[in-house]
Amino acid sequence: MRRFFVFSAIFLIFASCKTNKDENSSQKSAETTFVQVERGDDAKIYSTIIFESVSNFFVDGAEKKDGFSYDKNSGEIIYSQKGKSFKIEGKFLNPPVFVLQENICENPFIFYDGRELQKGIDYDWDEESSTIRFHETADLDEGSYCILWFSPSRDFSLLNNFDDQQIIDDWFSKNLSAN
Asked: Does residue 13 have a pLDDT over 60?
């Protein structure tokens, strides 16, 4: 086994969501909050969830009015100053798009609202760019979901309203031992 899986080794990429939707926006993009806990191995900051637009950017709890930019294609937040925690608020694309940074996993695990999603039926997976594109709209603010993948140096979890630790443990145990 390449690594011994311990829950505390999972990096929680997605920490919280907050909804600022109006009643007519459920079929369009929603206002949401994304929390990035740290910079990646390449020292860049990524949002994982691709946003249509970013309305606010916070570094270590302080709002930054300028000095940053956002790349909608890669999810990269370009910010050259130091910081430990980064939060963006904005409109995410819906149907959602996720870019799994530093991914080496051939088939990430995707669970949404009570069931495991199926590649080709519920979402498209581009292994070369590590991009997931949902086929249907999804409520990333209130919905329950879990996306799991790993890189050469760590394990990743993107979670919201998801608390089935056994599913997470089983997937990582099975997939880490295979690599």
From this structure: no
